[in-house]
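Quick board copy: two proteins, each given as sequence then tokens.
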Amino acid sequence: MKKVFPWAFAVLAVVIFAACAREEHALLVWLDNDGWAEAAIAAFNEKYPGIEVEYQNVGSVDTRGKVSLDGPADIGPDVYIMPHDHIGLAIIDGIAEPVPADLRKKFTDLILEAAIETCTADGELYAVPISTENIAFFYNKDLLGSAPVPSSFEEIRRFAERYNNPQENKYALRWQVDDSYTNYFFLTAFGMELFGPGMNDYRNPGWDSDAARRGVEFHHSFKKYYNVKVADATYDSTIGAFQRGEVPFTIVGPWGIDDAKKNGINFGVTKLPAINGRQPRCFSGNIVAAVSSYSKKMGEAFAFVDFLVSLKGETILYEQTGKMAAWKDISAIPGLRDDVYMKGIQEQSPYSDPMPIIPEMSQAWDAQKALFTFTWDEQLTVPQAQQKAMETYDTSLAVAGKKR
């Protein structure tokens, strides 16, 4: 007879106990901020006192992989959050439960259309956007003086011609000139479509297009007004300089607000200036809430997701984290509706493209950056940089075992 070691019985007992406990477990939610979680659960329990909720702090970028492992083992969450660009793999992994039709209609009416689209596949909604962020145009009111806030890059040029003094390192607009995420809007201003109209065709990144050429040329034309090397356009010398009150204009997202406020800078935020009369589209990123397909408490789980995106839930999110709801209209949300900086961010939100959810986006960042890096430092012509971007992308695809 085969010998059975005592520790094997112990392991088996733990597994059986965990499985039994799982049947009666509290609703388990994975969020990434203790203050937000505690306040949200307390308010949820005021509405649903019969639902016990357990919280674990799990980073949003870590949840998808953990749910894929913990869900089948029956120890995963009922509700979890993740960045919207993880949703494609979550659907492939089968870990996101489709939203019921009645809630899908409710969320579609409430939430920004572009945000909803990031969670939609084959007519099903697999998660719900609860917050969104994008870049915008920041301006220093004191340094601007009596001049109007520029509404176009042509107006920035005219301001820079009066304001700039390169010998004193004095420039009107400073931004991270080669950052792939930030500078995407220069491409869209001339009609480039990353990965095609649906942003889902990895064989068609678009960097070799005429629209991309014109966008990069326009981008490079601003070196006349910010004549530094890429290596010198760091976060500290651009965004940080704005936060210290040293520069009139910059381009950044809501993560640039707090330090400027702490430093007492008199500033405002608005949508990106137009380029040739066209409002450029930037990237946006959403945090979404999903119900695990392994949940045994589907009704309670969707009730919790519904609460997170409700007026009370979004008010708590803003109060605890300063994040902006992915709503079409934030004017009903206390605190957020009065936040002049976040309202400025949202002015750009309708003109934003959620980062593509296709897996090949991970190969796109360095390729797109090549468009701006090599042309700004004048190491390559624009056509050469376009070729470099395509070659960089193809190489990255090959490393991942793919071919365009």
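And the next:
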Amino acid sequence: MIFIIISALIFFFYILIILWFNIGWNKIDKFDDTQITTNPVFTSIIVPVRNEEKNIKTILNCLIQQTIDNKNYEIIVSNDHSADNTIDIATSFSNRNIQIVSLNKGSTGKKAAIHNAIKKSKAKLIITLDADCFVGKNWLSVILNYYNKTNAEMIVAPVVMKAKSVFGKMQKIEFMSLIASTVGAIGINKAIMCNGANLIFKKQLYFDYYNLGQTSYESGDDMALMLYAKKNKANKIVFLKSINAIAYTKAKESLNKFVQQRKRWVSKSKSYKDFDVIFVAVIVFLTTLIQVTSLVLSSINIKYLGVFLLIFLMKAIVDYLLVNSVSIFFSKRINIFMFLFIQMCYFFYVIIISILGLSSKYVWKGRKHK
């Protein structure tokens, strides 16, 4: 009985969180991105790279073909000791407004690469963009229009996954749930996530944050910067709700790469002290733990199977309503059968990745990290 009461209480909070996210998503208006950009602020687009020879040409072509006059922005490719042809390919674009900077020996990691580029930036507005993404020709125009409208300290822009394989489509749905949580939380002024693959912020905000001192983690500055802005710049984190502002990324082609990526994301959470982030993470983890526990206990007492099925079905319904509404806006309706299959795997996945991310090393770009 105690287990059922505790389970009901935890699940009540989970339902409340998802309802809040639904409210937050609906509170954010779609941005009218048909306006012509006037008086755009000079902007630095920073692309950190390490061994991105397969992707760098695509993203640079996207950036030099923006509808904004190239006199209004610079592109900084920040090299983290690439051992392939990434920089040779980037150098072939050197007649454009592209600057290539490299980390000194002894300095490594994406965080260091971004910091090195920001120090050399000439702009007051910074955009970070991952090398394995691609964007439309109006991407920058929409971002600068929205910045002119909001003058926000930080703009979280959408990242959407492209996939063809079944495994990739599963990742796409899981990734869309993260987008839904990100947007929903921002909509109620309780930001808990952002994605450095398409992130806009004032350079002064970055240096205000940076001068306070850094964590020892080799990544995670996007989240740390967002949490600093949340604490010190009230209501100045906004989400750009526009399909033309999307940065598209590709699904991981193997299970190992997917796991390593998720372990990297979870590993950063050790440094988070924000109440909203911790509260949501704990409730999500406990909800999944309840599902696993009730499923195990059902082998002893059949009544626990009813607890499992009730939570599973109610969770699937509220999750689907949120994720599908966000997915329709950015791409298309989610396949409900694939969604249910993911829900069946999700509670095991959350627990396993949480434990691995907090207790073991991960491999990223050919390096082992704590």
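Board note added afterward: Residues 252 and 258 are 6 Å apart (CA to CA).
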